[in-house]
Design brief:
Shape: globular
Number of strands: 2
Strand content: under 5%
CATH architecture: Up-down Bundle
Distance between the termini: 47 Å
Radius of gyration: 18 Å
CATH topology: Four Helix Bundle (Hemerythrin (Met), subunit A)
Largest sheet: 2 strands, antiparallel
CATH superfamily: CDP-alcohol phosphotransferase transmembrane (TM) domain
CATH class: Mainly Alpha
Strand order of the largest sheet: 1-2
Number of domains: 1
Order of helices and strands: HHHHEHHHEHH
Length: 237
C-alpha cells in the first residue's frame, strides 16, 4: 500500500485536471481547457507507467483510474460539444442557465461512463480495445474545438453546425460501446513484424499534424478508426 500512493496520486491529478478543464470549458476558456486535458492525458499515461515500474497493482487503482477517466475523458468531451452547439446557436458561454438544445452533448458522457464500466469487466481488452477508447474520443472532440478556435481552412461554421454535431453525438456514442476491435498503441519491442499498424499510424499521425496543425488532431483519430476497420477486415478475410 505504501508504494501505491504515488500512482494513486497521479491518477487523482488526472481527475483534478479534468475537473478544471470542465470548468474552463463552461467559462468559455477553451484554450486553457485544451492544455488542462493535455495534462490529464499525461497523468493518465504516467499512473500506469509508474505503477508498473514500482511493481504495484490494486483493485483500488483500477477503480480510481476509471473514475478519473469519466471526468477527464467523459465529462470533458460532453462539455466541449455542449459549448460548440451553444456557440453555433448564438448562446455563447458562460451562461446563466442550461441551454437545453445543447444538452444532448452530455449523452456522450453517459456512453463514456458505460464504456469504462464495460472495459473494467471485459477480459478481452488486455492487448487491444473493443470500441473507441475514451481518450481517443476526447482527442477527436478537442480537435474540433481547436478548429473552432483557429478557424483553420475556414471550417469554423462547419464545426459549429448542428448538422455535424448532432449526428456526431450519435456516432461517438455508438463507437464507444461498439463490438469493434481497435488496436492498442503499446509496443513490446521495436520490431516491424507485429507492429506494422502502429508504425504506419505513428508516421501518418505525425504527417497529419505537420500538414494540418490544429486540424490534425481530429484527423488522427479518424485515421485510427479507419486503420482499425482495415485491420479487422484483413483479419476476418
Amino acid at each position: 500500500m505504501k508504494r501505491s500512493w504515488l500512482p494513486h496520486t497521479i491518477t487523482l491529478l488526472n481527475l483534478l485536471l479534468g475537473c478544471l478543464a470542465v470548468a474552463s470549458v463552461l467559462f468559455g476558456r477553451y484554450e486553457q481547457a485544451c492544455w488542462l486535458v493535455g495534462g490529464a492525458a499525461l497523468a493518465d499515461f504516467l499512473d500506469g507507467l509508474v505503477a508498473r515500474a514500482l511493481g504495484v497493482s490494486s483493485p483500488l487503482g483500477k477503480e480510481l483510474d476509471s473514475l478519473a477517466d469519466v471526468i477527464s475523458f467523459g465529462l470533458v468531451p460532453g462539455a466541449v460539444i455542449y459549448a460548440l452547439l451553444s456557440e453555433g446557436q448564438g448562446v455563447p458561454l458562460p451562461q446563466q442557465q442550461i441551454h437545453w438544445p445543447a444538452a444532448p452533448a452530455f449523452v456522450v458522457t453517459a456512453f463514456s461512463a458505460l464504456r469504462l464500466g464495460k472495459f473494467n469487466l471485459d477480459e478481452r481488452q488486455s492487448e487491444g480495445f473493443i470500441g473507441l477508447p475514451t481518450p481517443a474520443n476526447t482527442l477527436l472532440v478537442l480537435g474540433l474545438l481547436l478548429l473552432y478556435l483557429s478557424d483553420r481552412m475556414g471550417l469554423q461554421p462547419v464545426v459549429l453546425s448542428g448538422w455535424l454535431l448532432y449526428p456526431l453525438i450519435a456516432l461517438l456514442c455508438y463507437l464507444l460501446v461498439a463490438e469493434l476491435p481497435m488496436f492498442s498503441l503499446k509496443v513490446k519491442d521495436l520490431a516491424w513484424e507485429g507492429n506494422e499498424i502502429r508504425f504506419i499510424f505513428a508516421g501518418a499521425a505525425l504527417l497529419l499534424l505537420v500538414l494540418l496543425r490544429e486540424g490534425g488532431l481530429s484527423a488522427i483519430i479518424l485515421l485510427y478508426i479507419a486503420l482499425s476497420l482495415v485491420q479487422n477486415a484483413r483479419t476476418n478475410a
